[in-house]
Amino acid sequence: MIRFIHTADWQMGMKASGLGQVSKAVRDARLDSIKRLVELGNDRDAELMLITGDIFEDNAVDRLLVRKVGQLLAGFNGKVFITPGNHDPLVPGSVWEHPVWEESANTTVVRENSPIELEHCTIYPTPLKEKYSTRNPVSWIQAQDCSTIAIGMSHGNVEGLPDVEPDFPIPQDAAERAGLDYLGIGHWHSYSPYKDGKGVIRIAYSGTHETTKFGERESGNVLLVEIADRGAAPSIEVLPTGKLSWHSLERSLESPGALKSVISELSSIISPENALVRLRLSGLLFASDREDLESIGEILQTRFLFGKLMADALSPAPEDDTWIEELPVGALREAAEHIRQKAMHAPVERDRAVATRALLELFDSKEKAAS
Ligand SMILES: [Mn+2]
Q1: Quick one: which of 64, 137, 320, 363 has the fewest CB in 10 Å?
Q2: SS (H, E, C) 48-64
Q3: Tens of pLDDT, residues 345-365
């Protein structure tokens, strides 16, 4: 039996640009999550930790960061195996030349495509040595005759994903084809398992240990994998390690009071001090809701680690005539008032809708003229 942690894509040293002053906190959180991951592996008696590429954002990251990561890994009770990925490939001058990797007795940076025989398993690693390639990194693996549990480590794009280039392409049946019990891979930040012809999961992206950006799904985890015997189905447990939560909300407002539910939605975000929230509003802003909009702006600025309100796509509702009063007296203002009356009181619904659209067009052209 073997029990191990599979993780990848830590992207340490990533810029987290676009987050202003918060980007440092976001980078620091990624280090904290490594600590949590190491503790978790120790608590669960994992024998190995397999890190399948892109630990670092690139090979030019701060040397001190490389040392910190190496030292954190030394706290793991088992053995650590690292295969470089396309962000941190094994090239001259890479992060893998840092002395910390030699200092850590439990950590091995794998430098060749060659099987590593351990007590309970054999590892088939594929360290990447370039940033891009159209070759299949696992094609050299032939584990059919392996007598112990056979585990592959690789990094690339699983073939057949929509709109994805064949960058280090890994066939979906690579584990079966190579005779591997499990093939742990990296490159995609979301946990994604792949079943073989018999419905058994033998290939998986662990995903990143800490979510890297808005819109990333199924991330912030590591995998605890257990395999009973050679040929047995792996049992995979997805364990959360991430500290930050990223919320990208889009709401279209259609009726007065709609912002109240947005406020309560913001209240329901747990651990707001570790939450990053991006709120995009569109639709109609009613005069009675303007104060709520202001409150939302304040909440986003104060309650969360990071908050951003995007309200450019909001237009005033027909009931809100304050902007019409700001138009210069004359034909334009008269036309606007006339359309507004139609938008609110025309007996046929379709006429009201057409008039509302016309009013919004008018508002938009006024805003554009003003800016
Ligand atoms: Mn990658």
Answers
A1: 64
A2: EEEEECCCECCCCCCHH
A3: 889 888 887 888 888 788 877
